[in-house]
């Protein structure tokens, strides 16, 4: 178990990590989700013991590991920019941590073969890394981290430089490997979809703050605040500033009926959030909020359409199933599905999430 | 702007290529229309960069010709082709302001000063960089720098084509949306011939009118996003486009019946494909689960809730089949599987069998 207690890190005048407390259980997968420069790598370096926190404690199975040399800690780390031993073959690169640890030959052979098979490296085992593509080099680095039998495995955007489809395959395979090894996995990514596919728990980061840390699907379904909701949405969540006035929400010149589930809210200002797939050019079967919009652009993937819209100065995206061709610049109504709205208060805290009983 | 003709183009990095396998780019015959938006899509090693380098003039093809508006440019140097290129990493001058960066390609080409001023101003407006126009590029964020890179490519109105080589790879997901939308806007407003190289299907499909899918040096399909989704011409296209990709199931086909292991699946048309490798293709979007006993017997392996939908992986006669369930749909008790009949594609030796063809 890895425990962070009020960990902060200051570099120069900037706080890179602000008062982070979290407990990572043995055998768990923990995603750090946030945009570039949100503090994911800084937090991992602190966990690994590569950097010392400015304040706070880091405990591994109850023992304070701040200041303990990295070599004495059983940690594996893979960076986005892969690192391999250029003079060794791929086989020896993968085997090296086990050789250092004195693992017997037969076990090394078996584990290297397994990892190579999984990472689709079997044909390249006798080559040196410089004769491989970038993706193959990264897979070598990943394979080495996975066979090491480390207590803590830190993966910093490990798939970012790989091809899309390979990424998709590894995202399916990685959780299986994670479950088998029993180590604590920490996995940094900028992509919400990747977090959802990997499952486990997710910590959303923003400017050095962990805004929420919970089961991944729960963070997605019940983001504690607007910032978390925005971080955990791709395409971005549509947000609408409104004022509740009796039975109506008022947005500039538009007025909508307040859905029954939200009728208990006090009359004040709120931000309404709707994920793109809950916005459509066709009215949903249930209640909806109708907005007058202008089409700014359309993107069609063949199975889905992203319709980018402007409504009274606000940019929104409707993600619709199937192919929908609409003219750029057309004025038309769009509908937010009233049964699937998030509501945040003036401070950005969650007041209501769809599918819940209303208490945030 | 220009049309681009690829005339029996092929390339091998070997001095004396013998067989098909020696070619990094297999023979290709196609015309890209003036003002079109095209994407070259495929995994690394598929030949898309080879093709891009032939178009830009960094590489002379071993066979065939390349023509801009009918004029043979096969042996012209890159700088003689009048092409703009945008790369994966921003190529800009850190010590110059945004405005100076955008003006630079025009100054180099001796465009008159008042023309430069006007075009640069237009481009700054289009890119939404007005409030940073006179800031040095050094202090800008990665996506702002990449915007300038795009702008430097687009500011030249007279180019034959603009080539984009994985321009959004280093950009965060949130910014990708904005830059992609911007690029589409610019294409609509300026009408450049654009060629966009990527391994990311979403980028390719949302950007291009026509997507060129490449696999092992071969163009396996050129089509609109709808065509690639509905009728993948090759099992690779079915797999590569879509997330998860099309289910490809080895089977034996006899007339209107496909046999997978012990079970039979009725097809909407009859086929006679004896003696060749045959497969069924069905997208996860068209696979449904129900408690209806008449469906195909399956065993559920995993269910992944990824928010907008659930991916169900189920075992059908030893094959893993992906199915998609909507946000609030649950896996039924004792489920069976049904394929939407009109959405089943039949493949012979990996190529789509078109009914009536």
Rg of chain A, Cα atoms, Å: 24 Å
Which range best describes the helical content of chain B: under 10%, 10-25%, 25-40%, 40-55%, 55-70% or over 70%? 10-25%
Strand order of the largest sheet of chain B: 6-7-8-3-9-10
Q: How many helices of chain A in DSSP terms? A: 8
Going by CATH, what is the homologous superfamily of the largest domain in chain B?
P-loop containing nucleotide triphosphate hydrolases
**Average pLDDT reading of chain A:** 91
Largest interface: A-B, 37 and 42 residues
Can you describe what's shown?
The complex is a heterodimer of chains A (360) and B (357). Chain A has helices at 40-48, 90-100, 105-118, 134-147, 164-181, 192-198, 216-221, 226-231; strands at residues 2-11, 14-24, 29-33, 55-60, 63-64, 75-78, 152-156, 184-189, 201-206, 209-215, 238-245, 248-251, 254-257, 269-274, 279-280, 288-300, 304-311, 314-321, 331-337, 342-344, 350-352. Chain A has 360 residues and is α+β, with helices and mostly antiparallel strands. In chain A, helix 2 runs parallel beside helix 4 and helix 3 (105-118) packs across helix 4. Chain A is globular and about 70 Å long. In chain A, 44% of the residues are buried. Chain B folds into two domains: 4-239, P-loop containing nucleotide triphosphate hydrolases (Rossmann fold); 247-352, Nucleic acid-binding proteins (OB fold (Dihydrolipoamide Acetyltransferase, E2P), Beta Barrel). Chain B is 24% helix and 34% strand. In chain B, the strands form six sheets. Chain B has a six-stranded mixed beta sheet, with helices on both faces. At the A-B interface, helix 5, helix 6, helix 7 and strand 16 of A face helix 5, helix 6 and helix 7 of B.
């Amino acid at each position: 178990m890895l425990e962070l207690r009020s960990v902060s890190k200051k570099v120069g005048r900037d706080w890179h990590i602000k008062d982070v407390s979290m407990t990572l259980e043995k055998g768990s997968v923990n995603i750090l989700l946030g945009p570039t420069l949100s503090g994911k790598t800084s937090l991992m370096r602190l966990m690994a013991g590569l950097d010392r926190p400015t304040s706070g404690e880091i405990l591994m199975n109850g023992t304070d590991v701040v200041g303990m040399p990295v070599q004495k800690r059983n940690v594996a780390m893979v960076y986005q920019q892969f690192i391999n031993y250029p003079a060794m073959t791929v086989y020896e690169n993968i085997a090296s941590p086990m050789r250092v640890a004195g693992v017997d030959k037969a076990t090394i052979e078996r584990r290297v073969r397994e990892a190579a098979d999984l990472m689709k490296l079997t044909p390249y085992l006798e080559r040196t890394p410089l004769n491989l593509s970038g993706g193959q080099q990264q897979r070598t680095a990943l394979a080495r981290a996975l066979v090491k039998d480390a207590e803590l495995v830190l993966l910093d955007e490990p798939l970012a430089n790989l091809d899309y489809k390979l990424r998709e395959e590894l995202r399916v395979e990685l959780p299986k490997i994670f479950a088998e090894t029993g180590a604590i996995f920490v996995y940094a990514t900028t992509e919400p979809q990747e977090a959802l596919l990997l499952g486990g728990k997710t910590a959303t980061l923003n400017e050095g703050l962990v805004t929420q840390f919970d089961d991944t699907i729960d963070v997605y379904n019940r983001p504690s605040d607007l910032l978390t909701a925005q971080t955990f949405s791709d395409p971005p969540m549509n947000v609408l500033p409104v004022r509740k006035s009796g039975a109506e929400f008022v947005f500039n010149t538009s007025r909508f009926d307040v859905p029954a589930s939200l009728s208990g809210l006090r009359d004040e200002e709120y931000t309404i959030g709707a994920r793109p797939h809950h916005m459509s050019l066709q009215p949903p079967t249930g209640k909806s909020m109708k907005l007058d919009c202008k089409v700014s652009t359309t993107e069609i993937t063949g199975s889905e359409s992203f319709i980018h819209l402007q409504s009274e100065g606000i940019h929104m995206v409707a993600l619709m199933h199937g192919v929908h061709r609409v003219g750029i610049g057309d004025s038309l109504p769009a509908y937010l599905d009233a049964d699937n709205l998030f509501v945040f208060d003036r401070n950005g805290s969650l007041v209501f999430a769809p599918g819940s009983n209303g208490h945030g | 702007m220009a049309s681009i003709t690829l005339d029996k183009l092929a390339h091998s990095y070997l001095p004396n290529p013998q067989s098909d396998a020696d070619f990094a780019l297999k023979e290709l015959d196609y015309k890209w229309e003036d003002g079109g938006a095209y994407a070259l899509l495929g995994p690394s090693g598929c030949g898309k960069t080879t093709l891009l380098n032939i178009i830009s003039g960094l590489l002379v093809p071993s066979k065939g010709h390349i023509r801009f508006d009918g004029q043979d440019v096969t042996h012209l140097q890159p700088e003689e082709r009048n092409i703009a290129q945008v790369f994966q990493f921003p190529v800009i001058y850190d010590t110059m302001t945004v405005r100076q960066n955008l003006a630079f390609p025009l100054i180099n080409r001796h465009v008159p000063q008042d023309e430069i001023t006007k075009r640069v101003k237009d481009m700054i407006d289009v890119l939404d960089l007005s409030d940073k126009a006179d800031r040095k590029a050094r202090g800008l964020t990665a996506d702002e720098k990449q915007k300038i890179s795009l702008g430097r490519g687009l500011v030249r109105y007279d180019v034959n084509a603009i080539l984009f080589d994985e321009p959004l790879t280093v950009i965060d997901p949130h910014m990708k949306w904005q830059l992609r939308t911007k690029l589409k806007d610019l294409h609509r407003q300026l009408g450049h011939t654009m060629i966009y190289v990527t391994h990311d299907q979403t980028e390719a499909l949302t950007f291009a009118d026509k997507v060129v899918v490449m696999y092992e040096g071969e163009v396996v399909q050129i089509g609109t996003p709808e065509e690639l989704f509905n009728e993948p011409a090759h099992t690779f296209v079915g797999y590569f486009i879509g997330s998860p990709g099309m289910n490809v199931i080895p089977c034996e086909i006899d007339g209107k019946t496909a046999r997978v292991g012990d079970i039979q699946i009725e097809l909407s048309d009859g086929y006679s494909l004896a003696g060749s490798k045959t497969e069924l293709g069905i997208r996860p979007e068209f696979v449904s689960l129900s408690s209806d006993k008449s469906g195909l017997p399956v065993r559920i392996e995993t269910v992944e809730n990824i928010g907008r939908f659930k991916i169900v992986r189920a075992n059908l006669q030893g094959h893993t089949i992906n199915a998609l369930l909507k946000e609030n749909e649950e896996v039924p008790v004792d489920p069976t599987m049904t394929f939407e009949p009109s959405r089943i594609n039949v493949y012979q030796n990996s190529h789509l069998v078109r009914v009536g063809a």
